[in-house]
Structure formats: C-alpha cells, structure tokens
C-alpha cells in the first residue's frame, strides 16, 4: 500500500495568512518573516535563513500567540515548523487561527466594497 504524502497526511487545513511571524531559535538567533501558510499543527514561512531540521524555536504570530515549534522542512525559499503542543493547545490555536482568517476575509470584503462604491460614477 502506498504511503500518503503531502496534503494527504494533513489533519488540519492550511490557510494563507497576510501577516508576519517572529521566529526565535534556541541557539539565540531570531528573524522576522512572512507567513506563507499556517494550520493548527504548524507554519510555513518565507525566509532565506537555513536552520537545521530538528532545530527548536518559539514562533510569535499576531492574533495567535507564542508557539513552541520544531523545524521539519527547509527548502530554498521557505522553512516549515511543526508546533510542539498538546491537544488542548492545538484546539486553541485552531480557534484563534480561524478567527484571524475570518477577520482577514471580512477586512478584505469591506475594502473591496469600499473601493467599488468609491469607483462608481455619480449621476449627472
């Protein structure tokens, strides 16, 4: 039987977030980066920093909080970190993440509606 790969193994949906994260590694270096996508189990960030697989870090995400994580993938343009949390904490992350996604969608809709209403020509 074939072993599941990639998204087939995912327990939680991943969402694109328009935000930044701060990643602080145990060996005392840290960096700010753009979030590529995030789920209740981990985050992928755009960065040219190359940590080692297994490196431990604390990830700060606005609206979600401070999460302990471990590097699970390093590619040319991104790094994936798996959150090291218990089930209760994972549920809390999922709830906060869902609120952030919904809030972002609402902001986008309001901006779109405002731009559409401002672009209509007024009758003469």
Mean pLDDT: 78
Sequence stretches where pLDDT stays below 50 over 5 or more residues: none
How many strands, what sense, and barrel or not for the largest sheet? 6 strands, antiparallel, barrel
Strand order of the largest sheet: 1-2-3-6-5-4
Write down the Rg: 18 Å
Estimate the helix proportion, in percent. 25-40%
How do the helices and strands follow one another from N- to C-terminus?
EEEEEEH
Number of helices: 1
- From the spread of the alpha carbons, the general shape counts as globular
Our estimate of the beta-strand percent is 25-35%
What features would you describe in this structure?
By secondary structure, the chain is of the alpha+beta class. It is globular. It contains 1 helix and 6 strands. It has one helix spanning 87-119; strands at 20-25, 30-38, 42-46, 56-61, 65-74, 78-83. It is 27% helix and 34% strand. The protein has a 6-stranded antiparallel beta barrel. The model has no long low-confidence stretch (mean pLDDT 78).
Task: For the structure shown, list the relevant keywords.
124 residues, alpha+beta, 6-stranded antiparallel β-barrel, 1 helix, 6 strands
Short description:
This protein is of the alpha+beta class and 124 residues long. The chain is 27% helix and 34% strand. It has a six-stranded antiparallel barrel.
